[in-house]
Amino acid sequence: MPQSRSRTFSARKSPSSNNGGRPASRRFNRPANRNQKGPRKAFINPSKFINRTPTAARVVAYEPTHQFTDFALVPSLQKNLAQIGFTTPSAIQDQAIPLALQGHDILGLANTGTGKTAAFLLPILNQLASTRETMSVLVMAPTRELAQQINDEARRFSAGMKLYSTVVVGGTNIERQIREIKRRPHIIIGTPGRLKDLEDRGALRFDTIKHFVLDEADRMLDMGFIADIRRVASLLPTDRQTLCFSATITPAIQTLVGEFLTNPEVISVRTGETSDHVLQDIIEATDKAHKHELLTAMLQKDEFEKVLVFGETKFGVQRLADSLGKSGITSEAIHGNKSQSQRQRALNAFKANRVKVLVATDVAARGLDIPNVSHVINFDTPATYEDYVHRIGRTGRGGAHGTAYTFIDKK
Q: Where a domain ends, among 239, 268, 297?
């Protein structure tokens, strides 16, 4: 497992407006495929969806150099961590927290589910415990669900400290969010589109931000939000701490880091995503009706305990979930046309095992860490093989057994 730090990126700040003024142009670019029915697909040979002899998953134990009690955190935070049961930090926490507490900019390369949320929240909450500065932290996340997860963690870590956060995402009442912003929370957690909308309305300014967090930066770039990120960054004070977390290091991420971070410490605890330990197979279907029939029969079997089904379009995902429900299979759908409260209810029901199946689009499922998924089923094939690996990586976590099936057209 790579665990390294270096200062390989030069410090280049994007042009910023530190007096709160807004540029004349208010145009934010949207993802190019936003109005398309589905993503443009690359051909993936069906043989790549087959692995009938999976290897045992190797879980490499990390040897931390700290315990949470070793970190220079205020007593209230230490008390909350002890009550939660946090004693030994993960790799990203062990390496990032001391540097973030010292005020360094950080590029953290870590897989989903490795504890990176605590890695950036704890140093920030520690600072807020002393300064009490409102409207001083901005966390940007790619999806509504991830933003909500970050908020839940912030509230858990800061219990009793009178530090307040708010979530500003699409699919929810913007007027209510404006009212919450007027109460001047300490932390604002949002998705790029809604942050843009609030800034456009003059309801949110960024000139008081002292800590800027980009979580799942690679996902935000994949989703086409680079212009939105650049616009927000241009309105932030130059004198700030920026913490950027990504699962991959690509030329686009390197460019982004060079623009927004100053002499960052680079921490890599990322392990290469692999599908070798997941049992994989294909299922041939003659047409969509046949696919529905086969899927329904599969999900009625007992071994399909907690199943994540991926579909291509928002409409198709909803229709599939409705169809499964009519067949007596408890299911929920999660996609971009649902309100945030509807998406959160669906996610909570799946996590709590109140429903057996969650049907999702790729975008809606990005950044989610759902434990104990027994099967991943690709009802529609993914756009790229990288997306395929990301999808099936939701099962077989932590050394557990995982199975993935992909429907393909019968020749």
A: 268
